[in-house]
Design goal:
Helix content is 41%, strand content 23%. By secondary structure, the chain is α/β, with parallel strands linked by helices.
């Protein structure tokens, strides 16, 4: 579990994150949503420890990040997996070499144990027998699945994903969403995702945080989105006619009940 209390982050005189408090739960898909420039990327990088915060506290399983020494922070990073927006695979390395990379960097496994772990992760993302392929030989969806395999190679407690469906067609996006949800539930991971994809929000959003202009404007589940009267949620989520119809349909069904 990750808990954030009154988090603040400045760049110069500009405060980008303005006192956000939130919780991210294990075994749940936790989504951070908001318009471009709302502060959600800065918020995620602060959670990762990539930015030093200017106020508040971040707790990992009850342990305050600010009180961790270098050794403890390094150990914490081995408990984190990251799926980058562009997959961030090494083009000169094979699929197997990409997935094994963090194991070589941080684990004390034997070569056989590392290969067994790679094969397990590739099987879990439905990429068996793709070990010797290079990123240039893969589709966009396959690259994302390799990135997920690499992110879970160290068996992380925490999984962070930055726009995992960026650049993917709708059908492939659904595959990636379902894969992330399955892995999150199967391994009890605290998964945190930055996304603009409202299909992802409505399909896998167990716990959703809306950030607006550096503030937490709302927190709830995908089902609560359909019933909330929060103006910021309605402005962000239901701008399209499709989602307006979805909400109206939900409200009509609830009234009948």
């Amino acid at each position: 579990m990750i808990r954030v209390e009154n988090l603040r982050k400045k760049f110069g005189d500009t405060e980008v994150i303005k006192g956000i408090s939130a919780e991210f739960y294990p075994g749940k898909v936790n989504l951070i949503i908001g318009k471009s420039g709302s502060g959600k990327t800065v918020f995620m990088k602060s959670l990762l420890g990539l930015f030093d915060i200017d106020g508040g506290e971040i707790y990992y399983s009850g342990e305050p990040l600010s009180q961790m020494d270098f050794k403890r922070r390094k150990a914490l990073r081995t408990e984190m997996g990251m799926v980058f927006q562009g997959s961030a695979l090494f083009d000169s390395l094979t699929v197997e070499e990409n997935v094994i990379f963090p194991l070589k960097m941080f684990s004390v496994m034997s070569p056989k144990e590392m290969l067994d772990r790679v094969n397990f992760c590739l099987k879990r993302v439905n990429l068996e027998n793709s070990n010797k392929k290079y990123p240039a030989e893969l589709s966009g969806g396959m690259k994302k699945r390799v990135a997920i395999a690499r992110a879970i190679a160290m068996n992380p407690k925490y999984l962070f994903c930055d726009e995992p469906n960026s650049g993917l067609d709708p059908q492939t996006s659904i595959v990636i969403d379902n894969l992330i949800r399955e892995i999150t539930q199967e391994f009890g991971i605290t998964t945190v995702i930055n996304t603009h994809d409202m299909n992802s929000v409505m399909e896998i959003g167990d716990n959703i945080i809306l950030i607006k202009e550096g503030y937490k404007a709302w927190q709830g589940s995908k089902s609560e989105i359909l019933s909330t009267d929060n103006e910021d949620v309605n402005e962000f989520v239901f701008t399209s006619q499709l989602f307006k119809r979805i909400k109206q349909s939900h409200q009509t069904a609830s009234a009948r009940e």
